[in-house]
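Async update (no meeting this week)

Hi team, since we skipped the sync, here's where things stand on the single-chain job. The sequence we agreed to prioritize is pasted below, unchanged from the tracker. I ran it this morning and attached the output directly underneath so nobody has to dig for it. Comments welcome in thread, and please keep replies under the output.
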Amino acid sequence: MTESKIYVELLKESEENKYKLVHRIIKEGKVLVRLNPDFTPFYPADCLQKISQVLLNKTSDDEEK
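Output:
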């Protein structure tokens, strides 16, 4: 494979992973808001940060088991 083809394949994989991550964050956010309506902060960036932290904690908990 040429370098350009490898680069294009890598970009496609990165784009798919970003898409999946965004959807997982949105899904997790909906669950957390249903469980605790006060969870949603005023600023969207804070919301993404909190949800990302919850997902990271879940992942680290799964790895420890």
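Quick observations from my side:
DSSP finds two helices and no strands in the chain.
The first helix runs from residue 3 to 35.
Reply here if anything looks off.
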